C-alpha cells in the first residue's frame, strides 16, 4: 500500500499522536458503538441474553477462535497471513485423539500435540521466510495439508474423551466465576499480547516491518526471524486451541473446526488490523471478539443456522476491508467521472 | 557565453528546421526550482548530449518532454508547431519516446509482445497475428541492426537488450525523437558500443536522439551537439567537435562552493574501519580500503558503479561472497546489521523513503527505531525516554516539525534526512557510513548536514561518504576513493582531488593511481 | 556478457532453458500422469479398466473446468477461493429449477448455472477492483457468504435424481459412441479448455491479462485497462464454476447444500501444479487442466492401491507446496546464474 494514501482507520496502534489517536479512536469507538447495538439486539432477541449462563456460553463458543486471533493479529501486522489456523486446530484435535487411543498419558498427548503445532508453524514460517514464498499461497497449501493429515490419521473415526475428567475444562466455568477456561486463558493471553505488541521493542519492530520492511531491515530489525517466530507462535497457539476444542467437545474428529479460519481472519480485520500490515491494536481485536461472540449467540438464540451465520461473518469481513478503502475508491471514481465529462 | 544553436552550423550541413525545440521551460515543486530555464533544440539525424551534474535539472527536462510534468512557462515546438503534452500518451503521439535507465518490460511476455502490447497486429476475427507481430519486430530489429529473438520471453534479457527492446517499441510508435536517460549507467563497454551503433542507425534514419550520460567520453563518441545545464539553467549548446572535456566540466561545475563546505582539517587517528578484498559476485570485486578516526573518506563513482552496494555489504544488509570487514580491529560477521550496529557502525542509506524511514511512523518512533534496546527497562519501551531522545535530537539538529508524534511523511525532505541522521547519531556510532547525505534537500539544510559531518569527525567519528555530487566530495572528503564498474580504481588525496581527476577515474579515461 | 548481434552463449542458453522449462512443465505433468497410471495399473490391473478410466476422467473434468477459470484469475496476481461454493450454489439452483420445470430444455440448466456463477464472479471482481482490496479476503468472504446463503435456500432439503431430466443426467454418465472410456462430460470440458486456451493466446484482451500479472505497474503505464481485465477474469472464473455446478448436478444427479465443499483447495493446487505462477503473469489453462487430471489421478490411484481414500486434501496441499517451492527454487537459480554469469545484467 502506498504510503501517501490517507485512509482510515488508524496509522499505528501504539501512537499517541492526536491525528493518529483520533483515527484510531474512530475505528475503535465505532466498535464500541457497534457492541452496544449488538447487546441491544441480543436483549431484544432473547430474555436469556444477559444471564450469566449465556455469558458463559458466549465465552465458551468464542474461546478457541479468540485465542487463535491473537497470533494472527501479529502476523497480519507484519504484513503476512496465516490461513492454516483452523486446519492446525483440527490436526491437533485429531492427533490428540489418536495418541489417546494409543494409550498415551494425557499430559504426553498434549505435549505431543504442542510439538506438532510448533513444527507446523515452523513449516509455514520456513516456506515464507526461508524460501521467500507468499504466505497466502503457503498457508492455503498448509490449510489443505494439515486438514488432510488429520483425515489420514483418524479417517472417518472419532475418539471419545467423555470419560476423561479433564474435559471439565471445556464444559464447566472456572470455579467462582462465570468465565470458561478458554475465556480466562484468552484474557490473560490478550494482556500479554497487548503488552508485547504495544510496549516492547519487538512489538514496535512488528509495526515497522508491516509499514516498511526494508526500512526495518536497515534499522537492524531481524525481519525474517520475527516473521518466522510469529508463524511458529501461531502454530503453537492453534494446537493449544485444538486441545481446548477437544476437551470442550470431548471428542476428536478430523473435521474439527473446519472453516474457522474465516472467523479468525474476520475478527482480526474487523478489529481494525489493516490487511496491508502495520496498523491495528489488541484492543480492537478484543472488541471484535466480544462483538462476534454476542452476535453469534444472538443469532443462535434466534435459531439461525450456523452456516447462515457465516453469511454475517463473511459480510463483516468484507465490511472491514471495504470501509477503510472506500474514501480512496470514491476519489478515484469521482476523478474518472470528472475527466470524462 | 550562451551560444545559440544556429550560429555554429557553418562547417556542417544541418537540416534546416529543428524537430523539437524546448525554450525557457520553468518547473518548480513547491519551493524547489527544479528547472528555471530548460532549453534544448534537437535536429533530425543528430545525437544531442544533455550534460550537467546531479540536480542540474536534466531529469526534470526529460520528464517535460515525456509529458510527465507540465512546465509552468516556456514553449515546446515540434516541427515548428507549438504543442503542450497533457500526459505521456500525448508525448508519445507526437513522436517522442523515452528510454529509461532501467526499462520496465513484461518479463513473462515475448519480446515481440512487449513491443506491441495492447496494439498487437490483428488478423481475421480480431485475433492477434503472432506471425505478423514477429515479422514486424524482426523488421524493427533489422532496422536497428541487432538480432534479438522476438519469440523469446523478456525475462532474462540483459539490461542492454531490454533497452534495445524499448527502443524497438519507440520505433513501433514511429518515434522521431528518442530520449535516452542515462542508458549506459548499467551497461558494460561492449554493450555500450552496441547501443551506440543502434543510436547511430536511428540518427541515420532521420531520428533525433537526446542522449544523457555522465560519461563524457561517450558524448564524444556518439554526439554531434551538446547542451550543458547547471542549477536548473541552460548554460550553452555547442558542437561537440568544438568542445574539450575541460570546457564541459568547467561549464557543468562553474561555481565557487567553498562556503558550503566547512570542512576543517583534522589529524586522522587510528583505523576504525578496514575493508579487505570485499567481493560480491557480479556486483563489486576486491574492494579494499580503510577509514581512520576523524577522517571523511568519500566513495565516488558513477551511478551504478557499485558504491551503495559496497556500503550495504559492509553494514550486513547484503551477503558478501568474499573478503573481510574489521571495525576497530575486530572482524565483523557478514549479513548481520545488528552485529555491525553493536560494533558501532551506522548506515544512513541512499533511499530515504524506502530504507531510511518508516514514512507512516511517528517522528519519535523513527528516531528511536535503531535504539529500542537502549530505551527499554525490563523489556518495555520507556515512552518518556523515547520522547526525550527524539526531542533532544530534534533540538540538536534544529529539526522543524509540528509534533514528535506526527508521521515523518509530514516533514520536508531536508527534515526527513535529519530524522534519519538523528536515528543513527542517537546510537553514538564510531563509524558512520552515509550514502548521498544531501540528495534532494535544500541548500540551507545541505550546509547544516555538512557542518554536522564536520563536527562528527572532530569528535573522532570515522565517516565513509558516498556522493554523486562532485562539489560535495571535493569540499568534504579527506580522501577520495573512486569506484568504476565494481572495482576500486583510484585513491586521490584531498590535495590532488579535483573534478577532473575524479571524473577521469570514474569514467575510466585515465586511472590516476591504483589503490 | 551479452553481445547483441551474436546471441551470446550465456543469454541464449538461459533463454532456451527458460523456454524449455515452460514446455517441460506440461511434458513433466504428462509424464507424471503416465507414470502414476502405469505403476498403479501394474499393481491393480483394474485401474486401467473401462469403468475406472471413465470415473477418472469424469472426476477430473469438474476440477479441470474450475482450474481453467482459476488460472485466469491467478495469472492477474489474484486468487478466487469462492469457486467451490459457487459450484455448490449453481448445482443446487439448477436442480431446483429442473424440479419446478421438469420439461424445461436441458440447455437452460447450463444457462442458469453460468449466469449464477458469472453474477458471483462479477461481485468478486467489482469489490476487488473498485476498492483495491486483496482478492484473497474478498473471495474468502464470498466462499462463506455463498455457502451460507445456499444453506439458507436449501434449508436441509436435497434434490433427488428423479427431479432431474434424464437427458441432463446422461451428460454425466453417457460415453462417446465408440470410445467407451470417454464420457460426454469430459468431452465438454476438453472443448472448454481448448476454447479458452485458444482465446488466451489469440486475443488482445487475454494478452493484457498476462501483461497485467507480469508487471502491473508497466501495464498501467502502457495504458492497459487493468481493472476491467481483472474484473473479466473474475467473471469468467465465476461463470466456469457455475457451469461446473450444472455438470456436478449432471454427474451426481443429486445435490444438497454441501456440493463442492473444499473444491477451492484442490483447484488452486491443480493450477499451481500445472505451472501457473502464483505471482501471476505466466501459465496456461492447458497446464492447469493437466494439473487437475494429475491430482485426481493420484487420489484415485491411492484408492485403487488400497492405501486410503482419505488423502485428497493432504495430496492437494503437499503438491501445492512442492510446486511453489520448486518454482521458486528454479527462479532463484536462474536469477543467481544471471547475476554471476552476466555481469551487470539484471533480472527483469
Question: What tags apply to this protein structure?
Answer:
heterotrimer, A: 341 residues, mainly alpha, two-stranded antiparallel ribbon, 13 helices, 73% helix, 1% strand, disordered N terminus, C: 348 residues, 74% helix, disordered C terminus
Q: What would you say this structure looks like, in words?
A:
The complex is a heterotrimer of chains A (341), B (515) and C (348). Chain A is an all-alpha fold and 341 residues long. Residues 1-19 of chain A have low confidence and may be disordered. Helix content of chain A is 73%, strand content 1%. Chain A is globular. Chain A has a two-stranded antiparallel ribbon. Chain B has 515 residues and is of the alpha/beta class. Chain B is built from 17 helices and 24 strands. A 6-stranded mixed sheet of chain B has the order 6-9-10-3-11-12, sandwiched between helices. Chain B has a 6-stranded mixed sheet with strand order 18-21-22-15-23-24, with helices on both faces. Mean pLDDT of chain B is 87; it is low at 1-11 and 511-515. Chains in contact: A-B, A-C, B-C. The B-C interface holds B 88-89, 102, 104-109, 113, 117-118, 120, 122, 126-128, 145-149, 152-162, 164, 186-188, 190-191, 194, 281-283, 304, 485 and C 1-7, 11, 14-15, 18-19, 201-204, 207-208, 210-211, 213-215, 217-219, 221-224, 277, 281-282, 334, 338-348.
Assess the beta-strand content of chain B as a share of residues: 25-35%
Distance between the termini of chain B: 39 Å
Q: How many DSSP-defined strands of chain B?
A: 24
Gyration radius over CA of chain C:
21 Å
What's the overall average pLDDT of chain B, rounded?
87
Q: What spatial form of chain B do the alpha-carbon principal axes imply?
A: globular
* Oligomeric nature of the chains: heterotrimer
Biggest sheet descriptor of chain C? none
The number of helical elements of chain C comes to 13
Radius of gyration of chain B: 25 Å
Structural class of chain C: mainly alpha
Provide the residue-averaged pLDDT of chain C.
88
Number of helices of chain B: 17
- Largest sheet descriptor of chain B: 6 strands, mixed
- Tell me the strand percentage band of chain C: under 5%
The helix/strand order of chain C is HHHHHHHHHHHHH
Largest binding interface between chains? A-C, 51 and 47 residues
Which structural class is indicated by helix and strand composition of chain B?
Answer: alpha/beta
Amino acid at each position: 500500500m502506498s504510503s501517501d494514501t490517507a485512509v482510515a482507520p488508524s496509522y499505528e496502534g501504539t501512537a499517541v499522536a492526536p491525528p493518529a489517536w483520533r483515527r484510531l479512536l474512530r475505528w475503535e469507538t465505532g466498535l464500541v458503538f457497534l457492541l452496544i447495538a449488538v447487546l441491544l439486539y441480543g436483549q431484544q432477541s432473547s430474555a436469556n441474553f444477559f444471564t450469566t449462563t449465556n455469558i458463559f456460553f458466549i465465552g465458551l463458543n468464542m474461546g478457541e477462535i479468540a485465542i487463535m486471533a491473537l497470533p494472527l493479529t501479529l502476523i497480519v501486522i507484519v504484513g503476512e497471513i496465516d490461513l492454516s489456523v483452523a486446519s492446525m486446530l483440527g490436526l491437533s484435535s485429531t492427533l490428540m485423539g489418536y495418541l489417546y487411543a494409543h494409550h498415551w498419558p494425557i499430559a504426553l498427548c498434549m505435549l505431543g500435540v504442542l510439538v506438532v503445532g510448533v513444527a507446523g508453524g515452523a513449516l509455514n514460517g520456513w516456506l515464507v521466510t526461508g524460501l521467500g514464498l507468499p504466505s497466502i499461497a503457503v498457508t492455503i497449501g498448509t490449510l489443505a495439508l494439515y486438514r488432510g493429515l488429520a483425515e489420514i490419521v483418524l479417517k472417518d473415526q472419532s475418539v471419545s474423551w467423555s470419560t476423561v475428567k479433564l474435559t471439565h475444562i471445556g464444559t464447566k466455568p472456572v470455579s467462582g466465576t462465570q468465565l470458561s477456561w478458554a475465556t480466562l486463558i484468552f484474557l490473560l493471553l490478550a494482556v500479554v499480547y497487548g503488552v508485547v505488541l504495544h510496549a516492547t521493542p519487538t512489538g514496535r519492530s512488528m509495526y515497522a516491518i508491516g509499514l516498511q520492511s526494508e526500512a526495518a531491515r536497515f534499522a537492524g530489525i531481524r525481519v525474517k526471524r520475527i516473521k518466522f517466530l510469529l508463524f511458529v507462535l501461531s502454530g503453537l497457539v492453534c494446537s493449544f486451541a485444538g486441545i481446548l476444542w477437544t476437551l470442550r467437545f470431548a471428542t476428536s474428529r478430523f473435521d474439527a473446526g473446519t472453516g474457522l479460519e474465516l472467523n479468525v481472519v474476520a475478527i482480526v480485520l474487523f478489529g481494525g488490523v489493516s490487511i496491508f500490515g502495520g496498523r491495528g491494536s489488541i484492543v480492537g481485536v478484543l472488541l471484535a471478539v466480544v462483538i462476534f461472540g454476542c452476535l453469534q449467540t444472538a443469532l443462535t438464540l434466534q435459531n439461525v443456522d450456523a452456516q447462515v451465520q457465516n453469511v454475517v461473518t463473511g459480510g463483516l469481513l468484507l465490511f472491514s476491508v471495504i470501509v477503510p478503502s472506500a474514501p480512496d475508491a470514491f476519489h478515484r471514481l469521482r476523478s474518472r467521472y470528472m475527466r470524462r465529462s | 557565453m550562451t551560444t545559440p544553436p544556429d550560429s555554429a552550423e557553418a562547417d556542417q550541413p544541418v537540416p534546416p528546421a529543428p524537430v523539437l525545440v524546448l525554450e525557457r521551460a520553468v518547473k518548480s515543486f513547491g519551493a524547489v526550482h527544479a528547472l528555471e530555464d530548460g532549453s534544448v533544440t534537437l535536429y533530425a539525424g543528430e545525437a544531442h548530449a544533455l550534460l550537467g551534474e546531479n540536480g542540474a535539472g536534466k531529469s526534470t527536462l526529460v520528464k517535460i518532454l515525456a509529458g510527465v510534468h507540465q512546465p509552468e512557462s516556456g514553449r515546446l515546438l515540434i516541427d515548428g508547431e507549438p504543442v503542450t503534452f497533457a500526459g505521456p500518451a500525448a508525448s508519445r503521439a507526437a513522436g517522442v519516446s523515452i528510454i529509461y535507465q532501467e526499462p520496465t518490460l513484461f518479463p513473462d511476455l515475448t519480446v515481440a509482445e512487449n513491443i506491441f502490447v495492447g496494439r498487437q497486429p490483428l488478423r481475421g476475427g480480431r485475433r492477434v497475428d503472432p506471425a505478423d507481430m514477429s515479422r514486424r519486430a524482426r523488421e524493427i530489429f533489422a532496422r536497428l541492426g541487432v538480432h534479438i529473438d522476438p519469440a523469446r520471453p523478456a525475462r532474462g534479457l540483459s539490461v542492454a537488450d531490454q533497452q534495445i527492446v524499448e527502443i524497438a517499441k519507440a520505433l513501433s510508435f514511429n518515434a522521431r525523437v528518442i530520449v535516452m536517460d542515462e542508458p549506459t549507467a548499467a551497461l558494460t563497454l561492449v554493450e555500450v558500443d552496441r547501443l551506440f551503433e543502434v543510436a547511430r542507425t536511428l540518427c541515420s534514419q532521420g531520428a533525433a536522439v537526446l542522449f544523457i550520460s555522465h560519461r563524457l567520453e561517450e558524448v564524444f563518441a556518439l554526439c554531434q551537439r551538446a547542451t550543458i545545464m547547471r542549477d536548473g539553467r541552460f548554460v550553452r549548446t555547442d558542437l561537440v567537435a568544438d568542445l574539450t572535456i575541460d570546457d564541459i566540466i568547467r561549464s557543468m561545475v562553474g561555481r565557487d562552493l567553498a562556503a558550503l563546505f566547512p570542512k576543517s582539517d583534522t589529524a586522522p587517528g587510528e583505523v576504525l574501519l578496514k575493508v579487505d578484498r570485499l567481493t560480491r559476485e557480479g556486483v563489486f570485486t576486491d574492494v579494499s580500503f580503510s577509514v581512520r578516526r576523524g577522517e571523511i573518506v568519500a566513495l565516488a563513482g558513477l551511478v551504478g558503479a557499485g558504491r551503495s552496494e559496497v556500503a550495504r555489504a559492509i553494514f550486513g544488509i547484503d551477503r558478501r561472497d568474499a573478503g573481510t570487514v574489521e571495525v576497530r580491529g575486530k572482524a565483523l560477521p557478514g549479513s548481520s546489521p545488528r552485529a555491525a550496529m553493536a560494533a558501532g557502525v551506522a548506515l544512513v542509506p541512499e533511499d530515504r523513503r524506502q530504507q531510511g524511514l518508516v514514512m507512516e511512523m511517528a517522528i519519535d518512533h523513527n528516531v528511536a527505531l535503531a535504539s529500542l534496546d537502549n530505551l527499554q527497562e525490563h523489556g518495555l519501551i520507556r515512552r518518556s525516554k523515547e520522547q526525550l531522545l527524539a526531542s533532544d535530537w530534534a533540538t540538536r539538529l534544529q529539526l522543524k516539525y509540528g509534533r514528535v508524534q506526527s508521521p515523518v511523511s509530514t516533514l520536508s525532505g531536508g527534515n526527513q534526512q535529519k530524522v534519519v541522521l538523528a536515528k543513527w547519531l542517537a546510537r553514538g556510532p564510531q563509524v558512520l557510513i552515509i550514502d548521498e547525505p544531501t540528495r534532494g534537500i535544500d541548500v540551507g539544510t545541505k550546509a547544516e548536514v555538512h557542518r554536522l559531518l564536520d563536527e562528527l569527525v572532530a569528535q573522532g567519528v570515522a565517516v565513509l561518504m558516498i556522493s554523486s555530487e562532485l562539489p560535495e566530495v571535493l569540499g568534504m572528503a579527506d580522501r577520495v576513493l573512486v569506484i568504476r564498474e565494481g572495482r576500486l580504481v583510484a585513491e586521490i588525496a584531498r590535495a590532488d582531488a579535483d573534478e577532473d581527476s575524479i571524473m577521469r577515474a570514474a569514467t575510466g579515461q585515465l586511472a590516476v593511481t591504483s589503490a | 556478457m551479452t553481445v547483441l548481434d551474436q546471441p551470446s552463449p550465456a543469454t541464449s542458453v538461459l533463454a532456451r532453458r527458460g523456454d524449455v522449462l515452460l514446455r517441460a512443465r506440461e511434458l513433466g505433468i504428462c509424464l507424471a500422469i503416465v507414470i502414476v497410471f502405469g505403476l498403479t495399473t501394474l499393481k491393480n490391473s483394474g485401474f486401467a479398466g473401462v469403468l475406472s478410466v471413465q470415473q477418472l476422467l469424469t472426476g477430473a473434468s469438474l476440477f479441470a473446468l474450475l482450474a481453467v477459470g482459476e488460472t485466469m484469475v491467478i495469472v492477474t496476481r489474484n486468487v478466487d477461493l469462492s469457486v467451490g461454493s459457487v459450484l455448490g450454489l449453481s448445482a443446487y439452483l439448477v436442480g431446483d429449477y429442473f424440479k419446478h420445470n421438469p420439461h424445461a430444455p436441458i440447455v437452460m440448466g447450463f444457462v442458469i448455472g453460468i449466469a449464477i456463477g458469472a453474477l458471483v464472479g462479477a461481485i468478486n471482481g467489482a469489490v476487488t477492483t473498485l476498492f483495491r482490496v486483496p482478492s484473497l479476503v474478498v473471495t474468502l468472504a464470498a466462499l462463506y457468504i455463498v455457502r451460507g446463503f445456499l444453506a439458507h435456500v436449501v434449508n436441509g432439503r436435497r434434490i433427488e435424481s428423479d427431479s432431474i431430466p434424464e437427458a441432463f443426467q446422461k451428460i454425466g454418465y453417457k460415453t462417446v459412441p465408440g470410445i467407451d472410456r470417454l464420457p460426454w462430460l469430459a468431452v465438454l470440458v476438453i472443448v472448454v479448455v481448448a476454447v479458452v486456451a485458444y482465446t488466451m493466446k489469440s486475443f488482445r484482451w487475454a494478452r493484457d491479462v498476462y501483461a497485467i500479472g507480469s508487471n502491473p505497474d508497466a501495464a498501467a503505464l502502457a495504458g492497459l485497462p487493468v481493472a476491467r481485465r481483472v474484473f473479466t477474469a473474475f467473471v469468467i472464473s465465476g461463470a466456469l464454476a457455475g457451469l461446473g455446478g450444472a455438470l456436478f448436478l449432471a454427474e451426481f444427479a443429486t445435490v444438497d447444500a454441501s456440493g463442492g465443499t473444499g473444491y477451492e483447495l484442490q483447484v488452486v493446487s491443480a493450477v499451481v501444479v500445472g505451472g501457473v505462477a502464483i505471482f501471476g503473469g505466466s501459465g496456461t489453462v492447458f497446464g492447469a487442466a493437466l494439473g487437475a487430471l494429475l491430482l485426481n489421478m493420484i487420489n484415485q490411484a491411492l484408492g485403487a492401491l488400497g492405501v486410503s481414500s482419505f488423502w485428497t486434501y493432504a495430496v492437494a496441499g503437499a503438491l501445492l507446496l512442492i510446486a511453489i517451492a520448486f518454482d521458486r527454487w528454479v527462479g532463484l537459480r536462474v536469477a543467481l546464474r544471471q547475476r554471476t554469469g552476466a555481469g551487470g545484467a539484471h533480472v527483469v
